[in-house]
């Protein structure tokens, strides 16, 4: 009988390449994620360049002996997706690539155990029990990395602090204490070589706080801020960042699809704990398909509206792309919007791409996600300011939900600041200089790009379908004046990956094209239930 062998080193190298940052940065963020998930309130980093060791100690719940045994197995984890940052069972395993050995000591109750682990070859990573050296006092877990390279950045105190502040920025800013208090009721602090990392306020000329509320709920599901400065922000701070449970996942303007006129002078952060359910394996992005993809797209749409409204109040927003090109493609987008409204009942995951329906904003059923109530999606985002008096205004018609059960807005108290945790059910606009009013578009949009050699007609990027105008089929469609049908087909193929499992993509494309063809008959809608 044969035996299945695993090239362990090759597997770890592939996992390393799946993470967006440097390997040292990945190791740090994974260790912090494990500590946060264990209920720790303090994480201490101690470097010893003479011995080439980095020791990381937390005061979390620790592990039992049987848990430490499983800790050495790849992809073994007791965590549940959505209840913390970690869930994949990869974590510190990547440290084997840069370490002579990894010593892990843990204490929980009366159980106090330790192990030594190293990579002995391409196929072997043996470990053995060793006597605990006293790295952990009452409870918690300690990891000591004996590094191959004496000049590793993991031994540099400045590198440790910079990485922690960039990757876990919400944990070091007081603006997020309230929303994170549910998950970290005792707070959290970092210590590097005995020095506590100080919490830093947002440094900007003007800061506006943002709160995104779910339907029928007064308490925000995501909070944050948008800041602007007279001088450019540092490169690694520019753009809008989004985090979950204190871990920054994405940063910049591209992921949001909204770009200010002066993007280098704008920065912001949004903390959305519920999006931990949609994290990818490497915690560097969000899942884009299935129920988790719909959850992420729904949050992105609500955040997009909140940021766009604030930028419009500051008079600092511009549209991406060529205006003439946008005007030319808008009729096609309106046709596709009508098709999506028809299909959203049959294919609920498309609802996150629908901008609105007659009588109010489109409800967004987010599948089985526990982050919504009764399958309802997102109401209009509430924008609040913690630095200026809030002026209450009536929400625009397209942001009014068509349900009578939504609580009425709470009257604003003159001169009182509304904090992120006290958002009302309506839309509050920060007073200030009014910018030029431009209608926002938050549904499905179309963009053209040239990708020579790409076999796909188009692909879905966030809520935008990117049409490959370098594809031979597109050039043939232009020559025969059938661009409309080509675009519809490309959109159908791109959306199929989000809407249905691979085995049902043909059925979805057929239903989509049939509905698109019937849209020419007028505003009357027809049902397309699958048999």
Describe, in plain words, how this protein is organized in 3D.
- The chain folds into three domains: 8-192, Histidine kinase-like ATPase, C-terminal domain (Heat Shock Protein 90); 206-429, no CATH class; 445-521, no CATH class.
- It is 25% helix and 20% strand.
- The chain contains ten helices and 21 strands.
- The protein has an eight-stranded mixed β-sheet, with helices on one face. The protein has a six-stranded mixed β-sheet with strand order 12-11-13-10-9-16, covered by helices on one side.
Keywords:
globular, Heat Shock Protein 90, single chain, 531 residues, eight-stranded mixed sheet, 3 domains, six-stranded mixed sheet, alpha+beta
Mean pLDDT over all positions: 76
Portion of residues within helices: 25-40%
Main sheet attributes: strand count, strand direction, barrel closure: 8 strands, mixed
Secondary-structure class = alpha+beta
> What's the total count of β strands?
21
Radius of gyration: 25 Å
Which regions are unreliable across 5 or more consecutive residues at pLDDT < 50?
319-324, 357-440, 524-528
Describe the global form. Answer: globular
Widest beta sheet: strand line-up: 5-4-3-6-2-1-7-8
Q: Report the end-to-end length measured between terminal Cα atoms.
A: 48 Å
